[in-house]
Design goal:
The complex is a heterotrimer of chains A (about 300), B (about 575) and C (about 210). Chain A is an alpha/beta fold. Chain A has ten helices and 15 strands. Chain A folds into two domains: about 210 residues, Rossmann fold (3-Layer(aba) Sandwich), CATH 3.40.50.300; about 70 residues. In chain A, strand 13 and strand 14 form a beta hairpin. Chain B is α+β, with helices and mostly antiparallel strands. Helix content of chain B is about 25%, strand content about 25%. Chain B contains nine helices and 30 strands. In chain B, the strands form eight sheets. Chain B has a six-stranded antiparallel β-sheet, with no helix packed on it. The radius of gyration of chain B is 33 Å and the shape is elongated. The two termini of chain C are about 20 Å apart. Helices cover about 85% and strands about 0% of the residues of chain C. The longest helix of chain C is centred in the N-terminal third of the chain and has 37 residues. The mean pLDDT of chain C is about 85. Chain C is an all-alpha fold. Chain C has one domain. The chains are: A alpha/beta (about 300), B alpha+beta (about 575), C mainly alpha (about 210). The interface between B and C is large, with 39 and 35 residues. Strand 11 of chain A pairs parallel with strand 30 of chain B, so a sheet runs across the interface.
């Protein structure tokens, strides 16, 4: 068995002539929680649908639990739980009928766990899916996905439509699930606080590419936001690679740099800023910096002693 | 299954669906316009009258079909006003001809005629399923005649009699000693108590007389004999039920009308009235003569008394639309829509006392009339043969003085467009089917040809293919001309397909196959291509400016890799 | 697989009910005519006229069901849900086709049995028609019904409401008279079996390569 639950190679996807994914290489190791982030239209749902075989990739290969995603056998599909964005359920089916369908078609079914979830969410069994509120659909979808005890759980914006209390309940359930060894979770959400709480690894999609793919702690270490104050005018260009963002205001300059290391520190020190303060960032702030559009300062060389030390 | 193979299977499957549904649609279009042409033929097109028939000794020879020698103007015999010569009257039933096209569902009745039942009995004559029938029991190989006894028993009730006949005799019980028939031809007869049959496996003729209680073994054809009978006794119609009455041939004996009375007269040369009196019949029940049709279209008369088997005629080839040299005179039974053989006999009665009825009689074979409807059902040929098998006269159906088929396709003045539409509809067929119709339309049996969907033996190309081969070059040029619209359409469509295939980035091999396939299969192939072509939206290549496929790594025009200007990812990456 | 088949039958129960109703109507008409009149000609007239009409309606209904199955799948994203469970597209498609086959059986078998029974009871005294003749007529009609269903499967995979409706009706109108042209012999079998295989391959290809 591969060490990766999900592995993609150069996934490219076009929709009606518009490129959405431009060569995405995604590797999600077994047994972790991967938070896949991106702005609206970045391609998160597209990549998930490609992984589940619901959408063919224009180019590239994807494997899920060792099988090609476009031809997933039933045995592998039985190990995957999926909560779709928008909570796709057959509209004219009653809740009871949908539950029966899941029970019969799933490889595994934890009736006790499901009953508990139903009691928690208090879902009306006889009501048609089209008549459920968005929140109820989300709860039902979640319950169904979790009751199948999947080896790989894919959650595409699962808390969309849930109120605060329901969201908290979901998070607790997710934590309970995480505690069971060997499960892998791919988690997409716009509520980054939730992601920050749960995820081990983070991936961020931007302009069709996976620009961030590392552990959460590592990400926080490697992305630095510095506020620099100069005696005179700040320099127009910093010869530092991987500048995510930079802003100038008078003698003050704020730069966000990726892959911070000693070399970059040394280059910074050359410019002798009067003050160099690191601004700690949450995942949300890192996400905003990484996905906001703006100029990148690309520098081809590094030289000199660190100009700022902590 | 990898993608190219599954796509190829999909293309073939789509092609089959398109071809079948398209052919079905075209069939109805052709049927509609062809029916319009047939319905416009004048009434005279369906009859051929030959008078005098040329079969009665002493009558003048037939001169021209449908030109009747009026007895009123030329009384043949002395002091015989109101006399009419013998005549052959052949007519073709148009409704049945059209029914060949859409009457195939009635062929199920072939399951019933000759009747078959679950006990594997083949019924040749039938009045009641429990009594009064004539059948072959396939299990025992015996012919069974069941009827109510003609003489009731003492108590006034009739006795049911059942007789079993085999090659070795007749018995009231089925017995192995009777032998068995294996593959008999017993044409639907008119006298269920006496039948003549030919067993194909034993290659021998038999006459079974249930009334007389005897089975006569007749002539056996030698093993290497090429003659292969396919019909005996009553030779008419073809196997399919619905075509049994496509032709009607009636032979009328010479007669005099005196008020309501008719009498027949024999003419000897010189016109002297004979002391002999003859009755003329088309079928005779003594089985002295049995007409036999073989699979090449030759007709023989088997004389059961003399055990002679001589050729007495043949199926005449009806006229065709294209006359390109010598064709065989003899029509293959599979290549005519219907045929009817009407032998003529004279029963010679020798009265000992003119005032008393004759006590004995002899049957004399006078010749035969044979009518054939062409494959397309539009023309009919009638041939008259003398007792020696020599052709006496041949007449063909005509419309306003010209051959019916020519008239139908060229001269129906108020429907000039219909022939052209029919021609164009035929040209919508795939060229490869047209060529097949030209080369081997004959393979399809005549009635099946009316129902053909793919290879069309009754199309213009099919008719040309069956024309003579003397003017070979002219025939080929004419074939090309007939196929012209189809070829032009196919080549144009192939050009379009190839152009589009280049745009969507198909490989050179695939483009060649598609172009060749479109030339071969025409509009069907083009529709198939449109249904199966790659449907991904094409992207303008940043390098060469032409449209390229997004599912290919490099541009299939210039080979450049992808550049996506609308996506501007940052230069930095934060990855493990 | 059984669950998937039951699901298809339940989702398309209106077609199954319609087929049963048509079959029952036909049976009632034949039985009524037999007991009320009992004459061969009258019963034959009911069998031939109504039998033909009901058969044509049934064949069109089969085509409509094939189209409806695919259309509703596409619009309600049924397979998009099912394909995330422990079933693959092949199983979903196979269950769909089996359900269609069951519909054809449910539609045709009662009619066939009614015809055979009525004819046998009448005695059909002047012709020794055996059961084989009825099978020779009814089996091609059954195969034609299934072929019509397969054509509907192809026409239905679209979000456009009009296309599957008109397309399936039009194609079934073209297909049904094939019996008139080719009769009940080997020719109609050859054409229909090739057509069925081709339609199923095409429908499967479309379904297996489409985005759900």
């Amino acid at each position: 068995m591969s060490e990766y639950a999900i592995q993609t190679e150069n996934i490219v996807k076009y929709f009606d002539g518009r490129c959405v994914l431009d060569g995405v290489d995604l590797r999600i190791p077994q047994g972790g929680i991967y938070g896949l982030l991106g702005r609206n239209g970045a391609g998160k749902t597209t990549i998930i649908r490609i992984l589940l075989g619901l959408e063919p990739a224009t180019r590239g290969e994807a494997n899920v639990l060792g099988a090609s995603s476009w031809q997933l056998p039933a045995s592998v599909l039985g190990q995957i739980g999926y909560v779709a964005e928008g909570h796709n359920l057959i509209p004219n089916y009653s809740v009871r009928r949908i539950v029966e369908l899941y029970k019969r078609l799933s490889a595994r079914w934890n009736e006790q766990f499901f009953r508990r979830l139903l009691e928690t969410f208090r879902l009306p069994m006889e009501r048609k899916a089209s008549q459920l509120s968005r929140g109820m659909r989300a709860q039902l979808n979640l319950s169904l996905a979790m009751a199948t005890e999947p080896k790989l759980l894919i959650l595409d914006d699962p808390t969309l439509g849930l109120d605060t209390v329901a969201r908290r309940q979901f998070l607790e359930l997710a934590i309970e699930l995480i505690s069971q060894n060997g499960r892998t979770i791919l988690f997409c959400s716009h509520i980054l606080s939730d992601v920050e709480r749960l995820a081990d690894r983070i991936g961020i999609l931007r302009a069709g590419k996976l620009v961030v793919d590392c552990e959460l702690d590592e990400l926080k270490k490697r992305v630095r936001k510095l506020r620099l104050i100069f005696d005179g005018q700040p320099p127009m260009e910093f010869p530092i690679m991987d500048i995510i963002a930079q802003r100038r205001q008078g003698r003050e300059m704020t730069i966000t740099v990726a892959n911070w290391n000693e070399n970059k520190q040394a280059i910074l020190n050359i410019f002798k800023p009067a003050s160099c303060t690191e601004i700690p960032m949450t995942l949300e702030e890192i996400f905003i910096e990484c996905t906001a559009s703006g100029t990148d300062a690309a520098v081809d060389y590094e030289q000199g002693e660190p100009i700022c030390s902590r | 299954m990898n993608k190219p193979t599954s796509n190829l299977i999909n293309i073939i499957a789509t092609g089959i669906v398109v071809t079948v549904l398209f052919s079905l649609s075209l069939f109805w279009g052709r049927f509609f316009f062809w029916g319009k042409l047939i319905s416009k033929l004048p009434a005279q097109s369906f009859d051929v009258i030959i008078r005098p028939s040329g079969l009665v000794p002493g009558e003048p020879a037939p001169q021209q079909a449908n030109l009747l020698v009026q007895s009123q103007t030329e009384p043949p015999g002395p002091n015989e006003p109101n006399f009419r010569f013998s005549q052959v009257y052949a007519s073709r039933n148009t409704a049945i001809v059209i029914g060949s096209a859409i009457g195939a569902s009635w062929d199920i009745m072939a399951e019933v005629f000759p009747y078959r039942d679950i006990n594997e009995r083949v019924y040749y004559w039938y009045e009641d399923k429990n009594k009064n029938y004539l059948c072959l029991d396939k299990r025992s190989g015996l012919i069974i005649r069941n009827y109510e006894s003609f003489e009731p028993n003492d108590k006034g009730a009739s006795r049911e009699a059942e007789f079993f006949a085999g090659p070795n005799g007749i018995s009231e019980t089925a017995s192995a000693s009777l032998g068995r028939f294996y593959d008999p031809i017993v044409t639907e007869g008119w006298d269920p108590n006496r039948i003549g049959l030919y067993d194909k496996r034993m290659r021998r003729f038999y006459v079974i007389d249930f009334a007389g209680g005897s089975v006569s073994k007749g002539l056996q054809l030698a093993q290497g004999d090429r003659r292969e009978p396919i019909a005996t006794c009553r030779v008419g119609g073809i196997e399919k039920w619905h075509n049994n009455r496509a032709l009607n041939v009636v032979w009328d004996e010479p007669e005099v009308e005196k008020g309501q009375w008719k009498k027949s007269r024999l003419f000897l040369s010189g016109g002297a009235q004979s002391s002999e009196r003859y009755s003329f019949i088309g079928r005779e029940g003594t089985y002295k003569y049995i007409p036999v049709l073989d699979k090449t279209g030759r007709i023989y008369i088997y004389n059961t008394k003399e055990e002679s088997f001589v050729q007495a005629g043949y199926l005449p080839v009806p006229q065709s639309l294209f006359k390109l040299g010598q064709q065989s005179e003899i029509a293959n039974p599979r290549n005519v829509l219907a045929y009817e053989v009407m032998p003529v006999y004279a029963i010679l009665r020798l009265p000992a006392d003119p005032n008393k009825p004759p006590e004995n009689f002899d049957v004399k074979y006078l010749g035969m009339n044979v009518a054939c409807a062409s494959r397309e059902g539009t023309t009919m040929a009638v041939a008259v043969f003398d007792p020696n098998g020599k052709l006496v006269y041949r007449g063909d159906s005509k419309s306003n003085g010209i051959s019916t088929v020519e008239y139908m396709y060229s001269a129906i003045s108020d429907e000039p467009v219909v022939t052209e539409i029919l021609f164009l509809l035929e040209n919508l067929q795939p060229p490869v089917f047209e060529i097949a119709s030209y080369l081997c339309g004959d393979i399809i049996e005549a009635s099946a040809g009316h129902r053909a969907l793919f290879v069309l033996p009754n199309s213009f190309m099919g008719m040309l293919g069956r024309a003579g081969t003397e003017k070979f070059l002219e025939k080929q040029f004419l074939a090309l001309a007939l196929m012209g619209p189809s070829l032009i359409l196919s080549v144009w469509l192939a050009f379009r397909v190839r152009k589009d295939a280049t745009i969507v980035g198909l490989s050179g091999t695939a483009k060649t196959w598609w172009a060749a396939g479109t030339i071969a299969f025409g509009l069907s192939a083009y529709i198939t291509y449109r249904l199966t072509r790659h449907k991904e939206v094409l992207i303008t290549c940043q390098n060469c400016g032409r449209l390229r496929r997004p599912d290919m790594e490099t541009c299939h025009h210039c080979g450049s890799k992808w550049e996506i200007p609308e996506l501007t990812p940052p230069n930095w990456r934060i990855c493990d | 697989m059984f669950t998937l088949i039951i699901r298809e039958v339940e989702d398309n129960r209106v077609f199954f009910i319609a087929a049963v109703i048509l079959a029952v109507i036909f049976s009632i008409l034949v039985v009524y005519q037999q007991f009320y009149d009992g004459k061969y000609e009258s019963v034959e007239s009911v069998i031939v006229n109504f039998g033909t009409m009901i058969s044509v309606l049934l064949v069109m209904a089969f085509c409509a069901m094939g189209a409806a199955q695919m259309y509703w799948d596409k619009t309600k994203k049924i397979s998009a849900l099912l394909a995330t469970l422990a079933v693959n597209r092949g199983q979903i498609f196979t269950a769909r086709v089996i359900a269609g086959f069951l519909l054809v059986i449910i539609g045709f078998v009662p009619i066939a049995e009614t015809i055979i029974t009525a004819a046998s009871r009448l005695g059909v005294s002047f012709l020794p028609i055996h059961r084989g003749v009825y099978f020779a007529i009814l089996v091609p009609a059954f195969v034609l019904g299934f072929a019509s269903y397969c054509i509907g499967l192809q026409a239905g995979w679209t979000s456009n409401k009009v296309r599957p409706t008109l397309g399936s009706l039009g194609l079934s109108f073209i297909l049904i008279p094939a019996i008139l042209i080719k009769g009940f012999g080997w020719e109609i079998y050859a054409i229909l079996f090739f057509l069925i295989a081709a339609c199923l391959i095409r429908a499967w290809y479309k379904f297996s390569t489409a985005a759900l």
